[in-house]
Amino acid sequence: xxxxxxxxxxxxxxxxxxxxxxxxxxxxxxxxxxxxxxxxxxxxxxxxxxxxxxxxxxxxxxxxxxxxxxxxxxxxxxxxxxxxxxxxxxxxxxxxxxxxxxxxxxxxxxxxxxxxxxxxxxxxxxxxxxxxxxxxxxxxxxxxxxxxxxxxxxxxxxxxxxxxxxxxxxxxxxxxxxxxxxxxxxxxxxxxxxxxxxxxxxxxxxxxxxxxxxxxxxxxxxxxxxxxxxxxxxxxxxxxxxxxxxxxxxxxxxxxxxxxxxxxxxxxxxxxxxxxxxxxxxxxxxxxxxxxxxxxxxxxxxxxxxxxxxxxxxxxxxxxxxxxxxxxxxxxxxxxxxxxxxxxxxxxxxxxxxxxxxxxxxxxxxxxxxxxxxxxxxxxxxxxxxxxxxxxxxxxxxxxxxxxxxxxxxxxxxxxxxxxxxxxxxxxxxxxxxxxxxxxxxxxxxxxxxxxxxxxxxxxxxxxxxxxxxxxxxxxxxxxxxxxxxxxxxxxxxxxxxxxxxxxxxxxxxxxx
Length: 513
Known about the structure:
Mean pLDDT: 94
Number of helices: 17
CATH class of the domain at 63-182: Alpha Beta
CATH topology of the domain at 63-182: Diaminopimelate Epimerase, Chain A, domain 1
CATH architecture of the domain at 63-182: Roll
Radius of gyration: 23 Å
Low-confidence stretches: none
Number of strands: 23
Shape: globular
Helix content: 25-40%
């Protein structure tokens, strides 16, 4: 097959654009037309002046959770408590009896007036049906009285917060480990439901140009779900899967190395949480506020033990104190992980202390960020991090420092949509307001590299994915125009036309109108 008559961006700086892209089997077969005639009776695909890029990677997604969330009560965008409750009431009235009512996306900081949710408010619209609603950041859980009764008083958890009223009674809001423990223990979702939702979710991801994901749902057994999906429906995404660091002892005991799996599904790294989030007001800051989930000393021990077993570590860190502690731990353990060629990463890196951006580059720690978080969180950040937002979501600072920056969505917290992330990174706004801290905007080319080249490097696949070069996998996306050359205003109109994985069209094969 030969793709021609368009703009083909290889993402290789020494040869950024070629005029044709030959594909043989699952691989890119040549460049600039030199090997086109060597292909036997090649199929020619007229791009019609469209643009071809390497397939997009979402470097931070909770894929099974996101897929399932498409079927739950959607609460994002609600501007008041009353609007939120109205959506819950409608869903409760329509849902079959006897089942949990599940939802996600509320953020009390977005409500006007700002009020905190309570079980009593939820009781009024759900009655005796147990209800559990995850916050937009997935670090807080809002439950009703029926759900609390099922817990039988077992709510507390180390590293968690149980909000209580003046009488000492639970308000219905659980945060961090308390929320996750409640959900894991009581809110049961069958594998059948997950796999069915993931099957639909993969098709949607492909339609948005996604050919690979770095999945963070190892805690709920995602590898098992991915394997079953592959067996029953086939898999049209490449998955780089994390596991909770708590699994390390078991992995060592079994002698299991990283990169287990095949071309489509591999388990590759461990996930650690340092702190909470902005939205739940649990991000750990240098002023002493927030929730500490893992100490710097504990992380240092985890990284050291993981490195000795060959496993790289990804660390969730939101606040400036959490990020500094994570960087300190990686710096202290350099003699162990660096000689083994491991590629550590900090997830989110939302608020950085002055000077810490340069430490990412100096240490070789990647910043796995989410461009869409900046415009989405701007109002909360202005309120909760007042005076410090010049060093929040500091993607320009990280890039200028020479850090490796990979972009993801953190779906379902934001939408799994690479073009949305591209716009957010470049424009620093997703509505009609002016750009928020435009000095931290990235260029289109940098945003594309963060969504193609850097994620492949993090997964150790930089010699086979992330670029369109001879011998690389033919994972690609066709766009309706060239995002590098079009006017910035046109980024709002940019659309995915088709997606290919390993030389096979997985979304909207040609010909196109």
